[in-house]
Each structure stands twice: as structure tokens, then as C-alpha cells.
Amino acid sequence: MSQATSTDQSTAFSTRGAYVHTGEEFNRDTNYIEDRILRDGDNPQAGEWPVEAGRYRLIAARACPWANRTIIVRRLLGLEDAISLGLPGPTHDVRSWTFDLDEDGRDPVLGIERLQQAYFKRFPGYPRGITVPAIVDVPSGVVVTNNFAQITLDFSTEWSGHHRDGAPDLYPEHLRGEMAAVNKRVFTEVNNGVYRCGFAGSQDAYNNAYDRLWTALDWLEERLAGQRYLMGETITEADVRLFTTLVRFDPVYHGHFKCNRSKLTELPALWAYARDLFQTPGFGDTVDFVQIKQHYYIVHEDVNPTQIVPQGPDLANWLEPHGREALGGRPFGSGTAPDPVRPGERVTAGHNPLYPVQDPAR
């Protein structure tokens, strides 16, 4: 997720960024650092870095849906030992995501206070948003890539030598053509569609974004009424990409972004599908609802000037039976569920119905 920029020096270090531009529709900057980490990569200067366990650190804020994808895929594939995880806090100012959850406000591996430092170390004065997820080369401290869509695909393909036993195939070769079309529509109309509603700068821009969003959600409701997962019988990359938007829909997008034709809980197939995934190891156990709400309602000051964070909605219904087993399917295909979340990477107690405050493990 990108930071907005501000030319007002009096607010240079506040959270207030320019997310909404009067009279304009929202257009996401999709120019990312295109470097990749490849199994046969041997030339970082040419943008091809080598796969090497322990060399890289994934910086991924739980609040951000694009970053949440990488946390899920890393966990499903069992890459925890190969790629370490740094977790910025839920809010940031116009300069950068910050490591305010860590002791002394510094990432314990990189030793930096702001993700911006890793970007600037490689690209002095980097002119675009300091976004998460980002992968940082630990020895040099420089950012390698922030191309969120490619990162998770490379986790599946280029990092296969470091997958856990029983890791699912999230990117099956025989489905890649169809999945590309599904992923494109989900990204443009749903993942980014909620932002086009929330950051619309005119009534016409909002109306158009709203209509496009709900056309896509109706299509998904129909598609998922007859099959358990987006691509059929097993979980794939496509489900990860849709889930991180759905899990934020009622807490944030329905109200904050005015995507309010219906709540997710009022869409039978999508709501059951979302609960199915939430209750699947690797999905819901990565979600921090408190950080999600803090991020959107505090950072987007031009959308929510009071920065008041709502207390609702009630989240207990995420654990209700979903009934999707009746559609058949095998969540992990021929693979197995991931191991329980490691203690150091668990969501804070009380921030997720899977981690109640009274959880004795905490």
C-alpha cells in the first residue's frame, strides 16, 4: 500500500496525505521495483537476485491487504525459516511505514526505524510511495522489490526448494491462464475497486466505481455459489488475493469507503466462502482486525478527519459454521495444513476471534 504525498510543509510529518483529489477518479500508481528473486538469479545489478534462505526479510504490515497476501502465502508454503518477517505498525506518516511495534521503534534485524531507509539506501530520494510489502536484502540493507503481485507468485515458483513438506500448489500450471483472467478482474474491480470508491474525488467517479465494484461482487457471488474456491476444488493464489479484501469489507470498506450496497454478511456465497477461508489455517490466523481499522480510519485523514476508529462490527460470526464442505473440494489439494503459527508471529490476543484475550498460550 502506498503512502500519499504532501507538499504542505506544515503537515509533512503528519498522517495527512492526499488520498482524494477533488474532481478526479482514483488511479493507483502501479509502477513498482521490478527486481525479482530467482532460483538462478545471479545479477542484482540487472534486477535478478539469487534465492538464498536467510538472506531476505519480508516487511509486511498486517493492516495492509497487499502485504497480508504475502504473509498468508509465506505461511501456507512454510517459508518462515527461509524468509524472515518484519511487521511495521498499523499507521504511518506521509514519509514511511514505521517499526513502532518493535522495541525502541527499530526493526530488530534491519536496525532501521523507517522502511524508507531501505528504499533510500538503494534509491536516494526514491520518488514514489514507500510501500509494503517490500523485500529487503539483509546484508546490504537495501530494498529488493515491492512488486506485491509478483512476490507471492515467486514464493510459489522460485522458492519451491524451500517449501515445507505438504505445501499446497497455489499456482497450478494447468490453471494459470484462467487464473490470470480471474486475478485481473478481481484486482481491477474488487481489490482496487474499493479504493476507487473510497478515494473518488467526484460523485460521478464514485458512482462509476461503485457500479463496477458491485458488478464484480455479483459475479463472484454467482461463481462461488457452485464451487468451493475461485479456481475449483482447492485453494490457490486467486483465493488469497480475494480474501484480503473480503476480510476488510465490513470493518472498513462498507462504511469508510462507502461500498455500502450490502454488507459481506448479507451475501450468502461470499460470506460463507470468506468464513471458510478465515477458518482455514494460514488465512484467518494472519488477520489483525484492530490494526486494520486503526490504519484506515487514522491514516486516511481526508476521508475520516476525526480519525475516530469504530468499535464494531462484532467479529464472533467469523467462527460460525460455513457449510462449504458440502461443495466438496480439498483445501490444500494433495498437501496438508501448515503448522500452528509460531509464537513470535501470532496476532495480538483480542485482535481476532481466533485469539481471544483469555487465550492461555499468550
TrEMBL record:
Any one Pfam family match given in the protein's UniProt record, by short name: GST_C_2
InterPro entries, per the entry: Glutathione-S-Trfase_C-like, Glutathione-S-Trfase_C_sf, Glutathione_S-Trfase, GST_Omega-like_C, GST_Omega/GSH
Stretches the record annotates as Disordered: 326-362
Transmembrane regions listed in the UniProt entry: none
Domain named GST C-terminal: residues: 172-306
Name used for this protein in its record: Glutathione S-transferase C-terminal domain-containing protein
Source organism per UniProt: Arthrobacter hankyongi
